[in-house]
Design goal:
heterodimer, A: mainly alpha, 2% strand, B: mainly alpha, ABC transporter involved in vitamin B12 uptake, BtuC, two-stranded antiparallel ribbon, 11 helices, 73% helix, 3% strand
């Protein structure tokens, strides 16, 4: 197939699979599961941009995912409680009523705006603070991980506000639609599928744009980009913000599909877990992170149904083997074959030089 | 005044735990550029070593002293195995060492869960460490004083070894200029392995100390690893003394903020303080000028 048509063709195949094949072939339960995997795939697209293209290893995507999720969960809880009402779990723990910082999220518009803007804003602050001061590589990874730790601790330490370690669950409606209705759940699945295709298209445009070239240049030779008169800090911050934006949306979709969000979905462990699919699929490619994330999420639920502790071993081994022996992910196998077929022609530098 | 002394002591005590967890990292991360996420699980392994030793010996009084060298060896061997099998091939990819060792840490945690169970186990403190010490009208728990002394002793021993022994000279030479060290007849490969042995062994010692603080469980390491890395980052990469200052600063800041707010808010504020500090000194408290890392 001509390479020019490869990407649009992949988009078309994905759209047909997601919108026609999956709803017909899967039971409602499996469709919900696939919807959950799609949420992780949306996060993976952002990680592919920030880590694969930009060389920023972010161990804190769970924070942005969690912000989107908790904002959505707060709104759903308030909507279930009715105007002026207090969510059930709060009424059980204390009689003080709804905390002031919950009140704005009674409004649908405020909630949606906050989901779109708040994770991005936090990412912008952290990104500028670190990249401006040329904190990068390992330092950035550790800081983003500390952010994830701090966020999870904050959620757990505040049971009256965020449900503590049990999190928020038991949602009945979704913007006026009953979550128990299979037709509404199908709409939720289509929303997740549509958002996934949209963020893929967005990243595809970013990758082929001048910005995409600058981002790769920052990854491979940041000093040279600086000498050419660009500010790498801004380039990297934009990529980091876009990744956070996607994670926030994914979190917001995750809540009505899965029906619960807790610190277990947002701390250090899930934040790093979000990377494994990206690494396996191929961090520098467009579709690799998506396919990897879906495959890993699927393998995760299939294996942990069978062997509860087996999945942790498998996940650990996958990390070790893929990163140590196949750092380009499965996609790099395809490059190697293509490179061998093309003879000694220059290979498009597959391995990101992570400093 | 009472509050002041108590808070400072709590801070120093928390800082000494951070220091024990971070000393080994300052060596393996700071000196060798390997981000070892499994360091936390080496700490856990040290703690379980103390547990096993105590069960075998049956006496709390002796087992603490005996388990310190054993835990050092256990942590060290784990580190050397990790270095020889996986890290060897990826010294030029520090970010990837983070992910590989994360995989190792997942496996070790699950292994601990399968062997020792998910629930925490207790390692009773020996009799000579029970009760407080009265000093200048204040009373300090003996266990915490012991940890403080242990941390200071570990630091002094490490600093002295790096400065005065032949091995220390070889480690410093390898870190500063690997090709030149190699040309001068130093086996950098053996040096790397020994450095890793010492760094990981210190994690084992930290684990033994942690058994004095409370019960130990398979996710013990996860709760210390992030703070330990922050200590190294704030202290300045490759700077053992930076780690000391950073550990005690963070310990005191944490205990101080915790006193006026809550533990979870203190964590978040300390993180914000660290990001703010890196705006002023992105390279940490002390700077290394000889090489750029990461």
């Amino acid at each position: 197939m001509n390479r020019r048509w490869a990407v649009p063709a992949a988009f078309a195949v994905a759209a047909v699979l997601l919108f026609a094949v999956a709803p017909l072939a899967l039971s409602p339960f499996r469709l919900d599961q696939l919807g959950r995997y799609l949420c992780f795939a949306i996060v993976a697209v952002g990680i592919g941009l920030a880590w694969g293209r930009g060389g920023m290893l972010t161990l804190g995507q769970g924070v942005f995912f969690g912000m989107g999720a908790y904002l959505m969960a707060m709104h759903l809880k308030l909507a279930d409680a009715g105007p002026g009402g207090t969510p059930d779990f709060m009424a059980l723990i204390s009689s003080d009523g709804v905390p002031w910082w919950w009140e704005p999220f009674r409004s649908e518009v405020v909630t949606l705006l906050a989901i779109l803007l708040l994770p991005a804003a936090v990412a912008a602050v952290l990104g500028l603070a670190t990249f401006r001061r040329r904190v990068r590589g390992a330092y950035f990874a550790i800081l983003s991980q500390a952010l994830a730790a701090a966020f999870a601790i904050l959620l757990i330490g505040n049971p009256t506000g965020t449900g503590g370690s049990t999190g928020l669950s038991g949602f009945r409606g979704f913007f006026g639609f009953a979550l128990s209705d299979p037709a509404n759940r199908l709409v939720l699945f289509f929303t997740a599928a549509g958002v996934l295709l949209l963020v893929l298209a967005l990243v595809r445009q970013l990758m082929v744009s001048r910005f995409g070239e600058l981002l790769v240049a920052c990854r491979d030779a940041e000093e040279r980009v600086r000498f050419l008169g660009y500010d790498p800090a801004n380039v990297k911050t934009v990529a980091f913000v876009v990744a956070a934006f996607m994670a926030g949306i994914a979190g917001a979709l995750f809540v009505p599909i899965v029906g619960i969000v807790s610190p277990n979905d947002v701390g250090i462990v899930p934040s790093i877990g979000m990377l494994i699919g990206v690494a396996i699929g191929g961090r520098t490619t467009l579709f690799g992170p998506v396919l990897g994330a879906i495959a890993v999420a699927w393998a995760g639920s299939a294996l942990s149904e069978q062997f509860p502790s087996g999945w942790t071993y498998a996940q650990g081994l996958l990390f070790m083997l893929v990163i140590a022996f196949l750092p380009g992910g499965l996609a790099s196998l395809a490059w190697r074959r293509r490179a061998r077929a093309a003879g000694p022609a220059p290979v498009p530098a597959p391995l990101p030089a992570t400093q | 005044m009472d509050v002041l002394v108590t808070q400072i002591f709590n801070g120093l005590s928390g800082g000494s735990i951070l220091l024990l967890a971070a000393l080994g990292l300052a060596l393996t991360f700071g000196q060798m550029g390997v981000i070892n996420m499994a360091h936390g699980e080496f700490i856990m392994a040290g703690a379980y070593t103390a547990y096993v030793t105590q069960n075998v010996l049956g006496s709390a009084g002796l087992s603490l002293v005996v388990s310190l060298p054993i835990a050092f060896a256990v942590g060290g061997v784990l580190g050397v195995v990790l270095e020889a099998t996986l890290l060897r091939r990826m010294y030029h990819r520090p970010l990837d060492t983070l992910l590989v060792t994360w995989g190792v840490s997942l496996v070790l945690q699950q292994l601990a869960r399968d062997v020792f169970g998910t629930a925490g186990v207790d390692v009773p403190a020996p009799g000579w460490l029970s009760g407080p010490v009265e000093l200048l009208g204040f009373s300090f728990p003996r266990t915490r004083l012991f940890i403080l002394l242990l941390a200071v002793a570990a630091f002094v021993a490490l600093a002295a070894a790096l400065r005065y022994t032949a091995l220390g000279r070889r480690i410093r030479a390898t870190v500063q200029n690997r090709p030149l060290a190699e040309t001068s007849g130093i086996s950098t490969r053996a040096t790397d392995r020994l450095t890793f042995f010492i760094g990981s062994g210190l994690a084992g010692v930290a684990g033994v100390a942690l058994t004095l603080m409370g019960s130990i469980s398979p996710n013990l390491g996860t709760s210390y690893i992030v703070d330990a890395f922050l200590v190294v980052v704030v202290g300045g990469i490759g700077q053992i003394r930076g780690a000391v200052i950073a550990a005690f600063l963070l310990g005191v800041a944490q205990s101080w903020i915790e006193y006026s707010t809550t533990a979870s808010i203190a964590k978040v504020l300390v993180f914000a303080l660290i990001v703010a500090f890196l705006q002023v000194r992105p390279q940490g408290i002390f700077t290394v000028r000889t090489r750029s890392l990461a």
